């Protein structure tokens, strides 16, 4: 059963640290997570009457936030490894090998079972496993459990100590096929060599996410949608659009997590195959196929057939490319899922299919270069390429040369994607995303035509086509003005120039017009950047926001107004904007807006004059972040 342990494998380059990169990217979204949580909490308080729609939308929003909560918990677990270790060992009954409950019995002298003089007793299986771990990863501690739910798992004992827990099925495997059991341990040590026990491993919120999300999806999607049907609000466009976004958004968020976990598992398989041999690892995988895998476990472990294929070809270029490109491919899949989910959502909110498709493709094209994920991916791939080349110079081996080729190919993937994003291939369509129904119905006045009427009348010429005069400001708009404060006539000190960007749009309330118009304007403000100038004016990028001039100042609060009028050959549109900017040192900056827009149209067709007027007004609240 025993034999000389296999020699330590030569250090082989694995894929870039996609698991750690996933955690870093989600950590960068933590401020947005906190802001969205407050917005969802407001909707969860609405449960009566038509407010059930808001309640359902808030529940669906909670589903989209759930992956971020788990990943934030994974970050916290990294900084508290002892707490995680205590939880894991209590949950799974993991004990040290010398614990009286599991320590091997010692023979008594009077039983006659003591070894003969000069005979060396065979070490107990716990001592054999501990010696194997110490030989391949000095300092690794062994813990043993009598439970049969798992085989062997790695987890952190502290920042510097790693523990491997073995369970009853593994003990049986050790006693019947020690080579296969060593391959299992080598797989776990493959995680340890890359520090992945702090992110994944036993008791990690990172892996718990993919275990529980199907149940959460059923509870927080099926139940709210059923409530919509029961209460008769199943056709609410806003709710249906949110359902579509959730159905596409949940797999979009989990896709990157699953790809990172699969990449880590395959890399650990490669390490075990190099140390124990591919045939031994394949035998282990076939043995564990029916013993240590549940339906949900397949989400954070690759399918066994894929692992067997990979283990038997671990050193081939194709297998290494799969290992390296799995995570960037998932990043591209995220973008595809975002497009597939946004198009029907926009259509449900009132946009035409062609207009929604063009808008979403333009947004996806901009997201390629505006979001940091692809730039960070390219940087990590470049660093890994340089490391592989340095290693190939030290190790004159074909495997090192293949690694350099693989990483060079992997760099091309994000580079080509970013190149597509930088090229002017797609442009955002002009005009409103949503077409208001009923607009275009006009009141016409007909001028007398030449030759018509009595003999004593003179003919009247056709009206000349021209844009109508600027419309007046709509009445009844809410205002932020309180009547107090210091007028900005020079008595107030000029502000220090500052720049902000929109962290989140916390609320959008249509006052007149459709809700889809208000939501579309709020979506455009999510990408806005704001600049408070020394003269008290506030400008925004994109420039569709008119320059806002300060009217009142009171400590940390600034009241501003702005107006802009645009003309075409047949229309005149005036936009009014009133704002309240609160910049408090103890809180996040907040910008409240009231926007009204009125469009007057005048057309002359066949000597007939057609005029129409349409107005929209909305109130928004934005949370800003200083830059």
Descriptive report:
- By secondary structure, the protein is an alpha+beta fold.
- It has a domain at 484-626.
- It contains 17 helices and 13 strands.
- It has helices spanning 18-28, 30-44, 52-78, 81-92, 125-136, 168-176, 178-193, 205-231, 237-276, 278-288, 297-300, 304-312, 317-348, 353-370, 372-394, 398-422, 515-525; strands at residues 141-144, 152-156, 162-166, 443-446, 486-487, 498-512, 529-532, 538-541, 549-554, 557-567, 571-582, 590-605, 608-626.
- α5 packs parallel to α7 (178-193) and α7 crosses α9.
- The two termini are 64 Å apart.
Tell me the series of helices and strands, N- to C-terminal.
HHHHHEEEHHHHHHHHHHHEEEHEEEEEEE
Which structural class do the helices and strands define?
alpha+beta
Number of strands: 13
Sheet of most strands: 10 strands, antiparallel
Overall radius of gyration: 33 Å
- Give the CA-CA distance, first to last residue: 64 Å
- Average pLDDT number: 76
Residue stretches low in confidence (pLDDT < 50, at least 5 long) are: 1-12, 39-50, 108-112, 435-459, 483-491
Percent helix: 40-55%
Number of helices: 17
Shape: elongated
Query: In percent terms, what proportion of residues is strand?
Result: 15-25%
């Amino acid at each position: 059963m025993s034999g000389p342990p296999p020699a330590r494998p030569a250090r082989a380059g694995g894929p870039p640290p996609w698991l750690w990169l996933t955690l870093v990217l989600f950590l960068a979204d933590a401020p947005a997570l906190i802001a969205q949580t407050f917005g969802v909490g407001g909707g969860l308080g609405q449960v009566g009457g038509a407010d059930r729609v808001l309640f359902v939308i808030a529940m669906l929003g909670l589903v989209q936030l759930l992956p971020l909560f788990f990943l934030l918990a994974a970050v916290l677990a990294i900084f508290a490894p002892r707490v995680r270790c205590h939880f894991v060992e209590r949950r799974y009954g993991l004990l040290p090998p010398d614990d009286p409950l599991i320590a091997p019995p010692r023979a008594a002298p009077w039983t006659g079972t003591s070894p003969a003089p000069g005979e060396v007793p065979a070490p107990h299986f716990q001592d054999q496993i501990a010696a194997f771990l110490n030989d391949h990863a000095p300092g690794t501690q062994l813990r043993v459990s009598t439970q049969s739910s798992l085989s062997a798992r790695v987890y952190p004992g502290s920042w510097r100590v790693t523990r491997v827990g073995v369970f009853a099925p593994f003990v049986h495997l050790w006693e019947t096929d020690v080579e296969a059991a060593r391959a299992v341990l080598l797989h776990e040590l493959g995680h340890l060599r890359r520090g992945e026990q702090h992110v994944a491993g036993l008791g990690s919120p990172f892996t718990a996410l993919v275990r529980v999300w199907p149940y959460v999806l059923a509870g927080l999607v099926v139940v709210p949608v059923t409530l919509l049907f029961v209460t008769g609000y199943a056709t609410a466009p806003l709710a249906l659009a949110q359902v579509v976004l959730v159905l596409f958004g949940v797999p979009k968020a989990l896709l990157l997590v699953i790809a990172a976990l699969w990449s880590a598992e395959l890399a650990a398989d490669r390490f075990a195959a190099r140390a124990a041999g591919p045939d031994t690892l394949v035998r282990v995988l076939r043995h564990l196929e029916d013993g240590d895998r549940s339906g949900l476990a397949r989400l954070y472990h690759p399918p066994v057939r894929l692992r067997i294929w990979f283990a038997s070809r671990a050193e081939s270029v194709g297998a290494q490319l799969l290992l390296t490109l799995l995570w960037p491919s998932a990043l591209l899949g995220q973008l595809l899922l975002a497009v597939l989910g946004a198009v029907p959502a926009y259509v449900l909110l009132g946009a035409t299919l062609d207009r929604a498709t063009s808008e979403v493709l333009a947004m996806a094209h901009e997201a390629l270069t505006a979001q940091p994920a692809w730039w960070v991916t390219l940087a990590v791939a470049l660093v890994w390429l340089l490391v592989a080349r340095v290693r190939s110079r030290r190790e004159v081996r074909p495997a090192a040369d293949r690694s350099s080729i693989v990483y060079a190919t992997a760099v091309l993937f994000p580079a080509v994607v970013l190149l597509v994003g930088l090229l002017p291939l797609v442009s955002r369509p002009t005009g409103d995303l949503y077409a208001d129904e009923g607009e275009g119905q006009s009141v016409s006045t007909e001028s007398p035509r030449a030759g018509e009427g009595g003999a004593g009348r003179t003919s009247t010429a056709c009206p000349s086509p021209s844009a109508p005069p600027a419309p007046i400001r709509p009445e009844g708009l809410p205002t932020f003005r309180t009547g107090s404060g210091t007028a900005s006539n020079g008595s107030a000190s000029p502000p220090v120039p500052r720049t902000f960007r929109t962290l989140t749009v916390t609320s959008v309330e249509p006052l007149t017009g459709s809700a889809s118009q208000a939501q579309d304007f709020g979506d455009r403000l999510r990408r806005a950047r704001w600049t408070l100038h020394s003269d008290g004016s506030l400008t925004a990028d994109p420039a569709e926001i008119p320059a806002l001039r300060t009217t009142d100042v009171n400590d940390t609060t600034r009241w501003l107004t702005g107006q802009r009028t645009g003309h075409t050959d047949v229309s005149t549109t005036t936009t009014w904007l009133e704002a309240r900017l609160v910049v408090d040192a103890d809180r996040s900056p907040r910008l409240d807006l009231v926007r009204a827009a009125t469009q007057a149209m005048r057309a002359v067709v066949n000597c007939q004059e057609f005029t129409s007027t349409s107005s929209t007004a909305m109130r928004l609240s934005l949370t800003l972040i200083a830059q």
